[in-house]
Design brief:
heterodimer, A: 68 residues, mainly alpha, 3 helices, 65% helix, elongated, B: 168 residues, Double Clp-N motif, 58% helix, Helix-turn-helix domain-containing protein (chain A)
Chain lengths: 68, 168
Amino acid sequence: MKDLKGIPAPDDPEAALAAVVAMRRRATQLELAAVIEAVRQGWTWAQIGEALGISAQAAHKKFTPQLR
Amino acid sequence: MGLLNAVRDLRTIQQLLTKAEAEALRAGEELPGPEHLLLSALELPDGSAVRAFERVGADSSALRKAIEAAHHNALAAAGLAEDDDGVEAPVERRPAPGAFRSTPQAQQVFQQAVALSKSTRPSRLRSAHVVAAACALERGTAVRALTALGVDRARLKAAACAEVGLPG
């Protein structure tokens, strides 16, 4: 786990929001890579949804178009 | 607008949006933003976007790297920068089914570019219109990428306008 103490203070919104965008982008990339791997390992949509805090149906709908 | 220009516009718009979506998907992002429209505009065959960058002495071919640098710098400022060696290339996403979608800022840039094209003669969308419209943004990834590239947005906008015969 990286040290989060360096996160820009909200009183520097320019830097803080840019960091949010970059983190969100990275999270989106990681999420898809991890779901693809989970499916490859035989996880069910219920298990993936549970891990992500969404329903099995939502996970299926969101990621099925991304599976090759 | 003549029929020929209308057909050309449709073709240009299709190229612009399709390529912008491909740029976003390649970067592992769900929706194209203004930075992806800019990358797409630089590949449109009319070449006016590339020439606008050249007019201000900027290397348009470095924009993709500048976008990555903008994100990297934002993470670094947060103390979350990863080593370049430790970052795997993102999985390329597949297009979501349904109609074309983009961020609201990309929609704004696209609509502004089309509006600018209506005020030029010939009234036809060219890639420099997209550059000029993107330069009106004040915040976001595209702005930070242009800054990372060393581009002054006001000068680039003036150069883009000059390319299409608009007052800067």
